[in-house]
Amino acid sequence: MHPPRPSDAPPPSPLPHDGLSHALFAQSPLSTVVYDATGRLRAANAAFERLFGVRAADLPADYSILEDPQLAAQGLLPDIRRAFAGEAVTLPPVRYEAAADLGVTTSTWTQAYLYPLRDGGAVAAVVLVHLDLTARVDAEEALRGSETRLRLALEAGRMGAWEWVLPERRVRWSETLERIHGLAPGAFGGTPEAYEADIHPHDRGVVSAAVERTLAGHPHELTYRIIRPDGEVRWLSARGQLVRDAHGAPERIVGICTDVTDARRAEEGTRLLAEAGAALAGSLDYEHTLVTVARLAVPALADYCVIDLVDDAAPGGMRRVAGAHVDPAREAAIAAVRRFPPLLTSDGIVARAIRTAAPQTLSPVTDAELVASAAGRAEHLALLRALGPEALLCVPLVARETVIGTMLLASAGSRRRYGPDDLPVATELARRAASAVDNARLHADALRARDAAERSSRDTAGILASISDPFVVYDADWRFRYINAPAHAVFRASGREPGERDLLGARVWDAYPELLGTEFERAMRRAAAARAPATFEEFSPRGATWTEVRCDPMPDGGLAASWRDVTARRQAEESAHYLGEATSILASSLDYEATLASLARLVVPRLADWCAVDLLGEGGAIARVAVAHADPEKVRWAEEIHRRFPPHPDATTGVPNVLRTGRPEVTPEITDAMLAASIADPEYLALIRSVGLRSAMVVPLEAHGRTLGALTLIAAETGRRYGDADVRLALELGRRAALAVDNARLHRVSEEARRQAEAANAAKSQFLSTMSHELRTPLNAIGGYLDLLTLGIRGPLTDDQRQDLERVRRANQHLMSLVTDILNFARVDAGQIEYRLADVELADVIGDLETLIGPQLAAKRIAFDHDACAPDTPDRPHVVRADPEKLRQVLLNLLGNAVKFTEPGGRVTLACATDRAAGVIRVRVGDTGRGIPPDQLERIFEPFVQVDRHRTHESQQGVGLGLAISRELARAMGGDLTVESAPGVGSTFTVTLPAAR
Fold first, then answer.
1. CA proximity to 243, closest of 357, 316, 162
2. What is the pTM of this model?
3. For 35-42, what is the mean pLDDT?
4. How many Å apart are CA 709 and CA 739, to the nearest integer?
């Protein structure tokens, strides 16, 4: 850019000289520049300097827009020259950077409009107006960024978008949807037929019906299966709706597909396990229940299922007890296969699962595998080939670390392939089946043992059977001598006691070594030594249960013990205690970071060995605000570990998942396998293993439908196991903590809003006051010059000139009154008005006012009635407690308005009434004017509001501040200003003021 203008060069000056043009040019909010015919700058308004951050006086004297290098680089000079040739020109959006050599680095986006000005036919100047597009361009950039974030969000949520353009029979998929279908980007065929080809044959009819309903105008939502090119079957959740064109005709269908395979499998697995659990628990006939299990596994897990049990008495060591097929026509084949149980000596998949005690998978199934499984039995081989298995999963049935059988799952026709995702459900189903078989066998043994015990001690058993609580008897050496049925059920449910026969005669400390060193052992031994009854309560961390134990000494030195589960009572007491404490803590301060830290310390160590609180911040950032442990050194260690290994925001478990879904996560028992599977970093895994985690739960901090954070409780050294009651307590703690956080944040926001409002109000008052003062100076000068002209100082005036000067004087006085109103309003609004309250007789004030408004009343022939404000009696005048000048101002404004809005020949009244009971005097100013609509009665007291301005003569118009100022003055004097009105009837304004004492 050229160097700055020399100091002796005249600065550019605006070209417009008439008042209106100059005002429009100078006060325009749009940047406006005037160039002469050579392209040199001759005038620029203030908006130009604000837009580009440079003063017009600082621009080089020889700068020409026709030679601007930035505009030339953008190819705009030809269009600009057309404007200087006499054509109105609009330029495209331009990014322009102000000159750096002037110390300015402003960069703006503008769109320019050039208008030529002619003088005698030739172009004398060109006016250029800039439209600031910077905000719009920034918004467009932000929009593009939001679209990118949306695409990333769809990918993170495993969602794909699709669009079916109906007239063209063309289907578009997003890249994410192609990946969900197992296709490379751009590999999708783009036709409805290509879409249908990927849908599972069993679900094509369902999808087709949903599309037909959508074409009829009903949005669809359904779940269906697809088959990927590699043969894997995936579940999708789809939503779609019809979009019509401008004429209402169907144009396209748009929708979203989400891969819900994992959730669907989990749902089916949960349902299957629930149904299987109910079946297995409902009968002790395990062979019958295993048939039910096989039928439940089809088709949820397989096209057909076969269950075998190890039986030393059977040929080949196995017995086939159950089978089921998805196709009823193939049930006969399954029944035939049951005649050929596997041989333990073969090399088939069942035998391998028995020998390894581990699940076995096979895909695809080769003929060699079928030959190995048939083990030389030709009929068996033919049956296997007829069934046509495509993939196999064989899971061993394990009970008490012994393989007792297998469950074989086969895919035959559905193209399903078995992988790691199938193992959890299949393994759990096999475990439950094995447990049912083992429990049934143990039950048979227990029945036999119970019969023997009952035969040997019928009388004693009859008496003890009446005891409803679990009850056991120990001899002097702490051996089990008697166990009643409720106690036996407790032992069996714990999974540690195989049967009463095995416990009878066993020492309690040998059967349950984990009791050694506990309060239970110490209390039992104290009761035995004291030979006196004793009662105590014991907490079991593993089951998170409380038990009340009563001990009674026996005559032979032994001890009888009975117990009952008091978990519900203790949990209720515990919940009430912690919730009460938590509420007190959370309500103690609006510093929610400090209260959350106190809450974390509250639950340690009784409810948790570790406690952490995380909050969701701006932009989805996760901030840890509290960590608690009984050992302060471990707290510092945990903070350092969290800093070094923060959780990944997209993690599918833990705090990120709870914050994302708003659902709690509970891990009743943490195993080393879980840790190894979820932690990839070896160093981090070793550190976590050193803590000895046993159980954990993460619950959301949720308030008003929003998840604000998460509360993490971890059991470690205490060995506690979290259950449903713990989750309910944690959720309630989280809810109360969330409400405290939300309330604290709302308080902060409201305080900031109040501060900003006060600042804005102060700035407004300052602006109005300054503006009013600045306007009064030139108005006073105008009035002075009018007086000089009227007096003939500048020479004699004609009648027409005097009339013109009188019009100018009236306009000047009207404008001065408007400025005075604005100045008064600014003072009132800023609280800068001083009030000198005194006892004021209304009759004196009203007499002064009549003199002031008399000319206005006479000019419009308006009758004025104020007799009602005369004293009641000479010794009882109407006296108010008010500032005399402020009272005159209020009443003068009300009377002036009444005269202004009353038609010629109308009436204005002023009445006074004393309300001695209320201690006030009311002054009513009424008129017979046009009245005020009901919906505007309160708005007229708002600043700068004028009702029916278009119906008011210009000489009557103000800025709409008179009533606002009058009400504020009345209220500041301890009173009020109200109005009653009806259109066509008139208005009555009432000033209420305290009566003088």
1. 162
2. 0.34
3. 90
4. 11
